[in-house]
Fold:
Amino acid sequence: MQRIKIPFGGLTCEQLEVLADLAEEYGDGIAHVTTRQDIQIHFVHIEDTPTLMRRLAAVGITTREACGNTVRNVTACPIAGVCRDQAFDVTPYAKACAYFLLGHADTQDFGRKFKISFSGCTDHACALARMHDVGAVAVVRHDEEGRERRGFALYVGGGLGAVPHQAKLLDPFVPEEELIPVTQAVARVFARLGEKKNRQRARLKVVVAKLGIEEFRKIVQAERAMLVPETGWTSFLATSRAALEQPLKPPSALTGNAEVADSFERWRRTNVYAQRQPGYVTATVTLPLGDASSHQLRGLADLARQFVGDTIRTTVEQNILLRWVPEGDLLTLHQALESLGLGAPGAQSIVDVVTCPGTDTCKLGIASSRGLAGELSSRLAAKSIEVDEAVRGLNIKVSGCFNACGQHHVADIGFYGVSRKIGSYTVPHFQVVLGGGGHDNAEHHGLAMAAVPSKRIPEVVDRLTSHYVRGRVDGETFQQFVARTGKAKIKGLLDDLTRVPSHDADPSFYSDWGDPREFTLGDMGVGECAGEVVSAVEFGLASSERQAFEAQIDLESGHAREAAGKAFRAMLEAARALVQTQTTAVSDDPATVLAEFRARFYDTQRFFDPFAGGKFAHYLFRAANEGTLAVDADEAHRRVEEAYLFIEAAHACYGRLNTPAAAPLPG
Structure:
């Protein structure tokens, strides 16, 4: 797979045509738009990549640092500059940041990837700034003389992955001239303090969580004070207020037409956005599963030349946006899009399902995210006319595993692939994730509710949306509805769907969407993005982190005993994951897990920290002995903190077990 960086999603007509040629000549004829506004071409032969890269460079596109332990593609709101709600156009800032950090000496020593996003406003989900390592949200202030000052509310330490972390506010107002140097300082701190050996812990979110935002802020400020000024910090500001784009055609109004087809009206309702500039709109080209054929890309390039020029952007919803469309040209444009097979409505609606590559091309995929997403999109599109307006605006996101490449944590309804052993068979499942949402720049993260067989996920969507339509109060969002209803009640609503019929009764449950073969995990290995082998131990440790996160949520809700119980189960899950390195036959019985862990890791001192000895193991043993009957809020708080320390120690122990030249055990 060749990942191609498209900073802030900006593309020209010529670039679209080159991408079409490359997908056809070197891939499978498909260009895939990702959730980070990149383009991916799959099934490329390694020996063809130098030529492919040279041809991209000839039209101003780089693939450098699109993968690996680097600053990944810098994303931004695709309607920046034309948005009616923006503070100002963030495009020049995103572009300057992307190219300043590309290949910079201070960004070459990371332990893992580093993601940056720019949003022009606080409320919407166009850029999802608060789920990034660095998220910049445009803010305008006025000085004492009434002059406008541009700046950014800068968030740090966000991220999804197996355990989502909410980004913390580093500074409510970073002046525009300080944006790049402060971001550079954050990168330097990450390079210096971030984990290098254990990839599971090597993200900025872990550094921020360990230090706390106050201490992290002090370190960044000290780092910023030491930086030597560079011209790239501010050289772009001289033109940042100039119009970066010029419309190809003059504005015009859409005139009434009695013969306009229903298909156009449905498309206009979901895919057209009125720009802040009168007479112009943006038109979203919906790409099913984020895919466009070479023929379709060439056709889009032709249409762009006819209607908008080089004002094209990719979106985080895996679509393509045409900006500066004269409103009077909409009907003609839609007819042309329909001729390309790209005139479908439903952009940013429940029909527009976001998905990662899943088992199609990623070795970390557990279940077929693309297969499920395609099935859901088809079913929902077929009955879209009947869908209630409140349901129409929901979004669904699907990941093939817990790593959240499909961003399932920030969906109204999210799913991620798992599996379950049913007798001698392995059955594809998806965890149902509720409580999240992309609004407020992805401020809210959902939590897993139940593992449901893959073939029953469409029933889950039907049941949840029907329940929402029947039970919501006036103006209540889906997220508010879930919170008011309670997850216990919603889980009860889905319980019967978690059951799997026997293989003889219904063998279809034992294969995945779009794949008639019997389901197996035997092909798992190197991941498309992660570039590493994920073992059962790592899955177990990730599960323990989710339990600890849920314990923290209970603690914040005032449910002390529930929090303490989940904290204990989180530690137990981590202990069981370690035991799996010694034997695969591990019971789920707590007493057995405790005995196995004590014999294999405590008595042998394998779990002992070089400095703390067996301290962290005692957290687990004490929680098992004390239970939760006498737990108050303070004790629950300590129990949750101890769970995180125990899990950290488990990660460290696992790292030592996998290090060829392991340090000698204490004593």
Observations:
- The chain has four domains: 83-239, 262-339, 354-518, 536-657.
